[in-house]
Amino acid sequence: MSLLNTRNSLLLNIKSAIEEIITADNQSISTFVITDTLRHDILNILVTYSDKIPHPANGDGNHSQTLIRWQILAYVAGIDLTIAKWFESHLDALSILHEVGYSEATQGLWAIWAAEGHPDPIRYQQGKISGTKSWCSGANIVHYGLMTYRDEQGQSQLLVVNMKQDGISIDNGAWQAVGMQATDTATIQFHQVTASNVGAANAYLERVGFWHGAAGVAACWYGATTSLADYLIKAYQQKPNDYKAMYLGQIGTALAVTQQYFHHVSHLIDSQPNRSHELAIRQLRANVEQLAREVIETVGLALGAAPFCGNAHFARLAADLPVFIRQSHGAFDLQKIGELSSTLTSESITASTDGEENIWQL
């Protein structure tokens, strides 16, 4: 992994544990065919490391704790994006609970479900919820769901619900995607199910950690992208030619720039933990999305159909990644980047004596 840092001993331990599982299944890390059993075995190992993985914005001044977290997510994503989707959601839920001051035990597998807009929205009264939540990944496997809902005043609230109780109906029928098919993404109906409210009103959206968590998703996209790019490196090493070298130079340059931007943004978060860094993180996500599309296309041009058709690991990543990056919001994200950039430019000009400040100057 290009984000791998030898100082990240936690990642090295996780990597060793996962490779041991895959090897015990008589497979190779770069070509293995994943089964439901293997996928859940890997996930279970990862969950045991949850309390050791740093929350974002917990830098110690020597090296970035946020980067350590992203390195782990990128490594997992390079293995399998379904596992990465589940584990990133689990870690994000734990970080949100930490930020809102939730003090109860958090053992087991968690998920954060924040999609809204269903015509039968979640309603919470006297410790019970009813209603429907869409786009819930891991619906059948998680122990606890951390969910958003809108109260009668329209404010965003957070609920914790134990998923191992009566009154919960899970419907996977709406999920028709081929990519990310194994994520167990479902629509969940709740019928007078016990839940508890956590945090203050609007805490989920207004906390600075909202954007720190959004960058963790981009680390997953990046990890899968580097795994796909690695196939081109290996193909060139085995059978060099000028065209492979050209394509490798093209994506290698883009990957290196994005890698350095991850380092830069992680430093921003750790050095200024009380700021959201929304603009930098939106730009990071937009960059990684563009990079992922470029790598999928370019590696295909360089290697042809062979890895898409004959390599289970490559084919799975190539099918999953285009679906996962649609967690980005495309034109809306670019619009917000433009608005935020314009605001920064206006502030710079106002503070300047010559009126010629430019936020992109070296």
> Do you know the CATH architecture of the largest domain?
Up-down Bundle
- Amino-to-carboxy terminus distance: 30 Å
- The low-confidence runs, each spanning 5 or more residues with pLDDT under 50, are 1-6, 348-353
Write down the CATH topology of the largest domain: Butyryl-CoA Dehydrogenase, subunit A, domain 3
Highest-level CATH class of the largest domain = Mainly Alpha
Number of domains: 2
C-alpha Rg (nearest Å): 21 Å
Q: Please outline the major beta sheet.
A: 7 strands, mixed
**CATH homologous superfamily identity of the largest domain:** Butyryl-CoA Dehydrogenase, subunit A, domain 3
Q: How many helical stretches?
A: 11
Number-wise, the strands total 7
Order of helices and strands: HHHHEEEEEEEHHHHHHH
Mean pLDDT: 92
Helix fraction, binned, reads 40-55%
Shape designation? globular
Strand content: 5-15%
Q: Which secondary-structure class do the elements indicate?
A: alpha+beta
Give the arrangement of secondary structure elements.
Blueprint: H1 9-24, H2 36-48, H3 65-79, H4 81-99, E1 110-113, E2 123-125, E3 128-136, E4 144-150, E5 156-162, E6 168-171, E7 186-198, H5 203-206, H6 209-238, H7 242-271, H8 278-303, H9 306-310, H10 312-324, H11 331-351
Parallel strand pairs: 1-4
Antiparallel strand pairs: 2-3, 3-7, 4-5, 5-7, 6-7
